[in-house]
Amino acid sequence: MARSVHPALIAFTACVFLFLLAPLVIIIGSAFSDTSYLTFPPQGLTLHWFWNIFEIEAFRTTAITSLELALLGTALSLLIGIPAAYAISRYRVELPSWLSTLFVLPILVPEIVFGFSLMKSVTIGLGLPIFPSLLIGHALLVLPYSVRVVSASLASFDFSIEEAAISLGCPPLKTFLTVVLPNIRAGVIAAFILAFITSINDVSVSVFLTGPGISTLPIQILAHMEQFFDPTIASVSVLLMLVTVAVMAVVEATLGLTFLTK
Amino acid sequence: MKHLAKWGLTAPAMTAVVLFLLVPVIITIAATFGEHKGMFSPYVAFFTSGFRRTVLYRTIEVALMTTAISLVVGFIAAYVIAQMPGRTKSLMIIAAVFPLLTGVVVRSFAWLIILGKNGILNTMLLSVGVISEPFSMLYTEGSVIVAMVYLFVPLMILTLVGVLEGIPQDLIQAATSLGATPAATFRQVILPLATPGLIIGAVLVFTGSFTSYATPQLLGGEKQMMMGTFLYQRAMVTFDWVGASTIAAIMVVVTIGIVAIMSRIARRLNPMAV
Amino acid sequence: MTVSLTIQSISAHYGKTPVLQDLSLSVAAGELVSLLGSSGCGKTTTLRLVAGFLQPTSGAIRLGDRDLTTLPAHARDIGLVFQNYALFPHLTVLENVAFGLKQRRIAAQERRQKAAAMLERVGLSGLGDRLPAALSGGQKQRVALARALVIEPPLLMFDEPLSNLDAKLRIDMRVEIRQLQRVNGTTSLYVTHDQEEAFSISDRVAIMNAGRIMQLDTPEVLYRKPANAFVARFVGFENLLSLRTIARDGALVTAEGAGGAKITLSQDDFGLIPDDFILGCRADGLSVQQEGNGLPAVLGTRTYLGRAYQYQCTTPAGDIVANGALSEPMAAGSAAVLVPAPEQCCILTPEL
User: Model's pTM, two decimal places?
Assistant: First the structure.
């Protein structure tokens, strides 16, 4: 029961979607090209460039590093973010309003400034090794998702069931783990996914914090591009896209994709 | 006890943000004021340098163009999506949001393939006969803008669909019943009510494009230096850390300033705010 | 200019599910007809169809001699009053009222005058420069009313306009709406789930259920002589007894119900009584007496209604609710006779 829309607008929107999705199709196509340079449409089809990814050590190690950072960083941010989200939602009236702004700072402050400052103060200033510095950077980068998305989930949470549990004798921590957490499961999963994807794809923060021996996949792709402009880059991109699709499949299975539209 | 609880719960996150974000950034900005040549000397040096001014103006220009184009394109697409029945609407939103999830490198790199000398656009124009030999479309302000628009349109669409859905259906019906054509309803009811949300969307895109690094790096390179790439160059190539901090400070001021001012304006203009 | 509204054999579907089936209805010029029913009965769907927000799968809608069925919603010239008022939050009260006039290209000066005059008629003069957010519920509803009236539409439609107001305001407003409608003489279609509201202001009421009109009549007829069991229960007949005639003697009809309960009724009092019928009785229409011509019953729980006692009675034909006089309270467990009073009863033919 679509409401009446001028056909010109619909045509324009179709073009917009073409604009949005065509480049991705182009990348996928050129990943299979049997040429040593990037071209579309692909000339000849081969999986060579996909195998190439695993042969290049730099891609192997940075892919693993990116995964580690994404998992650990997201876990860390959830660890400190969920209690903060809970406190903000539960004690909204009693806590100062600048608190929510504080947790959103990583979004307000330009990522590149954050990365630079972190490198200056922590990596060099404190002499912290590269991986911990990266971890801190990623964890803070995705903290706003942990706090905001979980807060949104808690906004529709009926706190009186928590009170019911406590009145029935359940201690506070156990109540949180067994009563609150399961009921905001959707929010936590959504936060995890958004945080994970943000971390995996990050460039602006990582570019300052990476160093000899430790780098992230996106940065490695950028480096590779400077030397070899070959379809390997396209195939790595396809792999990253597959990761995204896998993640969205998980979302669809657990929450239904319409959850993301909120 | 409860007092302890609520602060205790927020303490780890608070500490992390203050210790590893707030303090380092403040230190960075503070570093620009310690120069023996005078308190504001780095800023004077910045604004008296033709090259540096150009970088700043170029960044503002690119950000403005990106925002303007994304606004128009995104609003039209969001409007059409909002009129669609449930299932179609969800599918369209997912299709629009999917690029958002593929990461900045993938999305910027696609335009290298399209706009390159051997790229698709050149190939197409050659085969149609519009041009006789391939020309370089990369490393121009235009290529950066195209890639940025590609980056931010999904965000704009997502934001604006939310805004349009926030307009109660019965207002549209009331306007229609009073004789307003779809165009009149759009002009007199939808647009005014969507304006605060449009401002927020524009701010998001502007600050995002203003502070962008990967996209200008890939598609602009040295010839089209923008604030983000400039900062990196100053910090990691020339090791001019005071210069880099100056750039960082300017970026922070512009970003936070715009967010603060425009949020206030948006809130003032919002007739549906309780 | 008053015209009649004719809805002819309208059907509507949401996807595959039928929402209205072959519905027909006529509202005479100047008449106020209410669509009454609980949620899901199709009353709002009917209104949306006439307004043009929904397309029928078959049938036609005519206003006077104009065929509305194919006309787009913004060209139908109908005044709509919404449940949530639907006032434009970004426009002042005056601009809200003048909105319809603006769409009709009326000059700004004239718009303002007409809008101001209408605001005065609904008792809101002086509030023209306020924003809707600054108004109370009742004031908002008046603005909504003014906005619909000022365009002088041939048809007015109300979609549960008073359900968001508190009880006292609801009663005051419905009287005002009726008066305004009467003075203007505008043909009106009124949707509500509140029976008292519909009955108090309407010329006729259509009681709806599951996409069909169960009965369309004046409130008096609906109240006293419902046409079927659904309407009878809707208008408050607490008891419906299935009976079969076993003997006739002139005007007297003896009928038997379940469990062998017998009752004798006179056609002079109750009207024509068919062989198989349902006797509908209000609790007020069954007086609890110690003896008399009626249904034998055993009294159960007694509740105090203020104006009478109400007894839950058991009879061979089933459980009955009957009211008894305050002057003669009877104890639970005692035997009694329930005597039906014709004005509070009705005879229905059982549906197949």
Answer: 0.84
